[in-house]
């Protein structure tokens, strides 16, 4: 370009990227601003650490009294039941819903309401849905089951619809060309292409339901969450630790099972 | 097994696979049946569910829009700050942890294992549980919520970031190393440009999730709009609860649009 370009005026190998630097600066400035607004200060943090030590000291040793363990087993069992039923219901319901929401198989007047329904199921946190169902069907496991079912439909329905939209239409065409009825097209043209992915979504959702079924109890929707929140509010921190350890153990076992199941379908 | 001449029957799966699948289906059905038979559901509650639902909707209507400037706006802004600041803290802590967990950046199995253990433990505790713990430590308020979001997000961002690092091509890195570039330069000019789009994608995705989660943290006393929902619910002011639900729905929608727009620009 410039014939007088010498080694000294050559541009550096890595030009400074000013927009990126400004963005980082803005992010850090925002962090300080938000921290000052939220009253996140160093002193509070230090006092908190002091509190934290006391809190942890009170958690040990974990409470393993017979009555407490019975309470724990009952709550945990209910959580697992809720997770299983909600997953089964959610998966069964999201199969047709996902299918109806797939834009490559269905006309627009079917997919739009279905997509809206899925978006509505997905937009609220499980605990907020649980609040509504606790009002509708009262305290207990049923409210939790319904809340988790709605959340499952929102998640699997969306992913399943997207998976169907990505399939190759050649096989569908081939089966249609033989004059097969609609259900056969679904069963032999669509399902074989999405089955493995669907198993992946479903196992993920079972795991996620199991995690959340231990939480919805906080608003009274059954399961171990209610027991946990009560223990917390009564400063029963040693029992709280027992519950937390039990929940983590259950989740780890479920993760192991999940890996085994995924291997089976690879 | 089969001698020449006899017809061989082909099967897609081995006997072991078929047995394993059968065991799985059997297990699933048994689990469902046992759960359905033993779960405690009070049928009387179910009968009047439609009535209760109608009652709920009647109490929610009309939505008390006037309450927004007085009692919701500040809480909503606090929720957004909790989500954003928590995610920023999480990013700050997940960057070093992700680097330690990636085998090609830190070629030390012990450190990799330690970092992965920290990331897994961050992920295996629900954000509501983190919030409970931090409310006990820091007292009720936004600080507990911010910390809960941060600690829950570290595992998520760190895991995906370390996976992105492990997928980086070694070419540029080796080129820099062979020039004798010091370690920070190798990371900033060798790895970072390769993982940057993935990193911002992960951070935005996590921010989106954090916005949803920070709305409920207040139920256990960790600040934000959840606290307003909790007090309105305890006073049976369902018209206010309805207002807050609508507001949360709007914010979640806006967050999703913002995230998609930014993703389009930077990725």
Question: What descriptive keywords fit this protein?
Answer:
heterodimer, A: 266 residues, mainly alpha, MetI-like fold, 2 domains, 77% helix, 0% strand, B: 267 residues, 79% helix
CATH architecture of the largest domain in chain A: Orthogonal Bundle
Strand content of chain A: under 5%
Structural class of chain B: mainly alpha
Q: What is the CATH architecture assignment of chain B?
A: Orthogonal Bundle
Runs of chain A in which pLDDT lies below 50 for 5 or more consecutive residues are none
User: What is the H/E string of chain B?
Assistant: HHHHHHHHHHH
Report Rg of chain A: 26 Å
Note the gap between the termini of chain B: 57 Å
CATH fold-level label of chain B: MetI-like fold
Secondary structure: helix percent of chain A: over 70%
Described by strand count, sense and barrel closure, the largest sheet of chain A is: none
Count of beta strands of chain B: 0
Indicate the low-confidence ranges of chain B by residue numbers. Answer: none
CATH class of chain B: Mainly Alpha
Calculate the terminal CA-CA distance of chain A, rounded to whole Å. Answer: 57 Å
- How many helical stretches of chain A? 10
Averaged pLDDT of chain B: 85
Question: Would you mind describing this structure in some detail?
Answer:
The complex is a heterodimer of chains A (266) and B (267). Chain A contains ten helices and no strands. Chain A has 266 residues and is an all-alpha fold. Chain A folds into two domains: 19-57, no CATH class; 61-264, MetI-like (MetI-like fold). In chain A, helix 2 (42-59) packs across helix 10 and helix 5 (126-137) crosses helix 6. The mean pLDDT of chain A is 84. In chain B, helix 4 (67-101) runs antiparallel to helix 5, helix 4 (67-101) packs across helix 11 and helix 7 (142-166) crosses helix 9 (183-217). The termini of chain B are far apart. The chains are: A mainly alpha (266), B mainly alpha (267).
């Amino acid at each position: 370009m410039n014939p007088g370009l010498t080694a000294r005026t050559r541009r550096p190998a890595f030009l400074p990227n000013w927009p990126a630097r400004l963005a980082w600066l803005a992010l850090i400035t925002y962090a300080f601003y938000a921290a000052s607004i939220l009253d996140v200060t160093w002193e509070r943090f230090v006092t908190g650490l002091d509190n934290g030590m006391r809190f942890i000291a009170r958690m040990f040793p974990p409470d393993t009294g017979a009555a407490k363990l019975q309470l724990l087993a009952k709550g945990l069992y209910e959580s697992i039941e809720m997770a299983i039923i909600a997953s089964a219901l959610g998966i069964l319901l999201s199969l047709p819903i996902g299918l109806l929401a797939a834009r490559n198989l269905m006309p627009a007047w079917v997919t739009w309401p279905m997509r809206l329904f899925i978006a509505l199921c997905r937009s609220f946190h499980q605990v907020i849905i649980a609040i509504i169902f606790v009002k509708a069907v009262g305290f207990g496991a049923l409210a939790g089951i319904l809340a988790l079912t709605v959340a499952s439909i929102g998640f699997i329905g969306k992913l399943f619809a997207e998976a169907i939209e990505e399939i190759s239409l050649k096989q569908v065409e081939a089966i249609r060309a033989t004059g097969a009825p609609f259900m056969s097209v679904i069963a032999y043209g669509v399902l074989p292409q999405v089955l493995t992915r669907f198993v992946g979504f479903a196992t993920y959702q079972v795991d996620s339901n199991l995690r959340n079924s231990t939480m919805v109890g906080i608003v009274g929707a059954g399961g171990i969450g209610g027991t946990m929140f009560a223990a917390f509010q009564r400063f029963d921190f040693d029992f709280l630790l027992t519950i937390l350890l039990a929940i983590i153990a259950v989740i780890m076992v479920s993760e192991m099972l999940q890996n085994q199941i995924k291997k089976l379908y690879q | 097994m089969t001698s020449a001449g006899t017809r061989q029957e082909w099967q897609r799966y081995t006997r072991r696979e078929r047995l394993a699948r059968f065991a799985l289906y059997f297990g699933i059905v048994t689990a469902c049946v046992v759960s359905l038979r033993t779960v405690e559901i009070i049928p009387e509650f179910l009968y009047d569910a439609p009535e209760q639902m109608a009652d709920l909707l009647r109490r929610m209507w009309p939505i008390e829009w006037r309450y927004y400037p007085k009692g919701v706006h500040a809480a909503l802004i606090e929720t957004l700050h909790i989500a954003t600041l928590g995610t920023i803290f999480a990013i700050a802590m997940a960057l070093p942890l992700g680097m330690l967990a990636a085998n090609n950046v830190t070629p030390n199995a012990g450190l990799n294992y330690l970092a992965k253990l920290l990331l897994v433990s961050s992920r295996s505790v629900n954000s509501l549980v983190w919030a409970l713990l931090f409310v006990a430590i820091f007292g009720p308020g936004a600080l507990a919520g911010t910390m809960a979001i941060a600690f829950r997000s570290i595992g998520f961002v760190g895991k995906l970031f370390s996976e992105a690092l492990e997928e980086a091509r070694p070419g540029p890195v080796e080129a820099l190393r062979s020039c004798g570039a010091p370690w920070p330069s190798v990371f900033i000019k060798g790895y970072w440009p390769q993982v940057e789009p993935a990193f911002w994608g992960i951070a935005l995705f996590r921010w989106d999730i954090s916005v949803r989660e920070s709305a409920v943290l207040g139920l256990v006393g960790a600040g934000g709009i959840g606290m307003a929902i909790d007090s309105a619910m305890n006073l049976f002011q369902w018209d206010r609860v309805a207002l807050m639900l609508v507001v949360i729905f709007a914010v979640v929608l806006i967050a999703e649009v913002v995230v998609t727009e930014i993703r389009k620009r930077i990725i």
